[in-house]
Write a structure and sequence with these properties.
There is one protein chain. This protein has 681 residues and is of the alpha/beta class. 27% of the residues lie in helices and 29% in strands. It contains 19 helices and 33 strands. β15 and β16 form a beta hairpin. The longest helix is centred in the middle third of the chain and has 23 residues.
């Protein structure tokens, strides 16, 4: 996975961890005249990349990254053949999550490449090798190759990249007064959605910005300009796609007949049912064949299929673009909570959805508040005092959002007063646990919910881990010490009992930890992604097959498995103790199905596991009276899947039809329209 892909997908993406990386002291040192870019978010700078030409005509790159404690130190050298394309690529060092060593060479008519988990070769015919660990500044080579290919650029190991001009330009000025004209383009074929990148007047890579970005040093201040133009361009594409699925006929009444129905409130499955949705509302539920079809009504034969409430992803972030929203709908996600969304993006999507120009899940969003700090969360509202924290809470409430999410660098002394104000204003309070604070202390200070299982586990970890939980210790601490936690201890029992008594919700996002701690180490896809194999661009799949989190000193993969097993066991313990669990992904959305499967593996019944993605998040969001179950009078949010979910939980992935607030959507077609290449297995 390129650094570009890393920063535009979840920051918990896995990378290889088999061999030791080249030590940082052996990496290249940029010369004084090297060009410099900064790796940044709106919360501040997180690293830099350099580019310079070597005496032999090869290009050299150097990267240093710090993502809230995860550091990367990498260099890259690219030399060119007679055709102007890379003939050799050498990448050395470590990414924020593991080894980045990679090589590529063209010789004797063959292209050969090697990463930590992959060795491959193919006859060379001018195809472009897309490095798994390549640095973003090396995009210039791809841009030039696309131009030379006059459109479609065939990639190695596979795939096709395209670059589309939007016709939009910007006059930008650096802090030193230098001016440039840059043009917005979209790069597709290397991820599930087109990525916005900016080119300069010479058609060279200038930079990009999403949640994170890479911009030339001195141009950090142009982010608002980039966001405004990218929003305009993105709206055109997604508005047209939304309109395709929001035609008048899609709002016609729909009758699902002879389905197996999942009753989320009763935690049971009911055979041979008929369900009628009209005017955006569930109008009737009756035995199969007992609701008469009327003129203008769409009738769907549900024989051999299961009808469920639309799914909730209880932990789903989104940025400026709409692609993820549409992709989630295509997978059956009709509602979600976003515990960390910029106010401006939430308001924008809410307004366009209400106006009928954006097809979007129902969104219940929180905004992150963190202390101004070198390790502050990206895209957070940063504060420097208790008064500022309370002011941020009020701003979130005034914008009409669902809640606030506190983060790991917050001053623990500010949690209680800020939470009190949040509750007065009707806001839900959740978050990571601030460094030095134990989770039960955060709950007593006002947390309604603990996000991520690793932060719940912090209750039982050594103090030095708790004190540094705003660094990579929030993951490496649980990896190291979870295996030593006795889930039957009095300490664990007391913690679970107090969470249950207080009504505290836990959002485990356990799939993150399975993908990172115990993924396949044979170059195959993690369990969360395997059903979609072959549907994503090869560049994306390669980034998923790289073996998980680096092996920590003194530990074995058996230790990793033992710590992960305790994490799964804690899920079962929480559920058995009466703590509400809600299923979230903190990913792209497709991981939700595996999240539910792991809950079943942790000891939940199948119906209870499904409830974590239907009625329970709806109730947690305060909308259980109108969402989360198939009940007469509730919103018409439903999914029809191919198969019997009661007998085969994996059938849940095979979504055929989605009903979103009464709009009937062909999910299989929509998956193809939004960049998911087909149907999961």
């Amino acid at each position: 996975m390129t650094r570009f892909a890393l920063v535009t997908t979840a920051l918990f993406a896995s990378t290889a961890a088999i061999a030791a990386p080249t030590p940082v002291e052996e990496l290249m040192v940029p010369p004084e005249d090297a060009e410099k870019w900064v790796f940044l978010s709106e919360a501040g700078q997180h690293g830099e990349q350099y580019r310079w030409e070597l005496d032999n005509g090869c290009m050299a790159y150097r990267d240093s990254t710090n993502l809230r404690g995860w550091t990367g130190e990498t260099d890259e050298t690219v030399c060119y053949g007679d055709d102007g394309l890379p003939q050799t690529i050498t990448i050395r060092g470590k990414s924020p999550f593991g080894v980045a060593e990679e090589s590529y060479v063209v010789e004797d008519g063959m292209a050969r490449w090697k990463t930590e988990t992959e060795t491959g070769e193919a006859p060379y015919d001018g195809d472009f090798y897309w490095a798994a660990n390549g640095l973003t500044l090396a995009f210039n080579d791809a841009i030039r190759a696309i131009r030379a290919a006059d459109g479609d650029l065939k990639l190695l190991p596979s795939g096709v990249a395209r670059l589309e001009a939007t016709g939009r330009t910007l006059d930008v000025t650096s802090s030193d007064g230098e001016t440039q004209i840059i043009a917005l383009h979209y790069l597709s074929g290397v991820g599930t959605q087109p990525y916005p990148i900016w080119l300069d007047a010479d058609d060279e890579f200038f930079g990009f910005f999403s949640t994170l970005g890479l911009l030339p040093e001195g141009y950090e201040g142009i982010i608002p300009q980039l966001k405004e133009v990218q929003a305009e361009a993105g709206l055109e594409a997604t508005a047209a796609l939304s309109a395709k699925y929001m035609a008048d006929e899609a709002r016609a009444p729909v009758l699902f007949d002879n389905v197996k129905l999942f009753d989320a409130e009763g935690r049971t499955f009911r055979e041979a049912q008929a369900v009628l949705v009209a005017d955006g509302v569930i109008k009737a539920i009756a035995p199969a064949g007992s609701i008469a079809a009327e003129a203008g009504m769409r009738v769907v034969d549900g024989t051999g299929k299961t009808l469920l409430p639309g799914l909730w992803d209880a932990h789903a972030h989104f940025g400026q673009d709409d692609w993820k929203l549409l992709q989630n709908i295509a997978s059956g996600i009709t509602s979600y909570r976003s515990p960390g969304a910029a106010i401006e993006f939430v308001v924008d999507k809410r307004e366009r959805s209400a106006a009928g120009t954006l097809l979007a899940p129902d969104i219940y969003a929180s905004t992150i508040i963190d202390q101004k700090h070198p390790l502050a969360a990206q895209s957070s509202m940063t504060v420097e005092s208790e008064a500022e924290a309370i002011a941020a809470v009020r701003e979130i409430a005034e914008a009409g959002l669902y809640g606030v999410k506190f983060y790991t660098s917050m001053n623990p002394e500010w949690i209680a007063p800020a939470s009190a104000v949040a509750h007065e204003l009707g806001l839900h309070v959740s978050g990571h646990i601030p460094a030095t604070m134990r989770p039960i202390e955060a709950v007593r200070a006002g947390y309604d919910e603990i996000t991520h299982l690793n932060f719940a586990l912090m209750q039982f970890l050594p103090q030095e881990v708790v004190d540094a939980s705003n660094t990579n210790q929030r993951l490496e601490g649980p990896i190291t010490y979870a295996k030593d936690v006795d889930l039957d201890s009095e300490e664990v029992n007391a913690f679970v009992a107090e969470l249950a008594e207080r009504g505290t919700v836990v959002d485990p996002t356990i799939t993150i930890f399975e993908d990172m701690i115990v993924p396949p180490r044979d170059g195959s896809l993690p369990k969360s992604a395997a059903p979609w194999e072959g549907l994503w661009p090869a560049t994306m799949e390669r980034g998923m097959k790289t073996g998980g989190y680096k092996l920590l000193d003194g530990m074995t993969y058996d230790d990793y498995q033992a710590s992960y097993d305790v994490m799964v066991g804690l899920i079962g313990k929480l559920h058995a103790g009466g703590v509400t669990l809600v299923a979230g992904t903190d990913g792209q959305g497709y991981e939700l199905f595996r999240e539910i499967e792991i809950y079943e593996e942790a000891g939940l019944s199948r119906a209870d596991a499904l409830a974590t993605a239907t009625i329970l998040p709806a109730e947690t969001a305060g909308v259980g009276d109108k969402s989360g179950s198939i009940t007469v009078g509730k919103e018409g949010d439903l999914i029809l899947v191919d198969g019997d979910v009661e007998a085969e939980l994996g059938a849940l992935r095979r979504v055929e039809t989605v009903v979103l607030n009464g709009t009937v959507i062909d999910a299989r077609q929509m998956r193809r329209d939004v960049g998911i290449g087909g149907d999961p297995k």
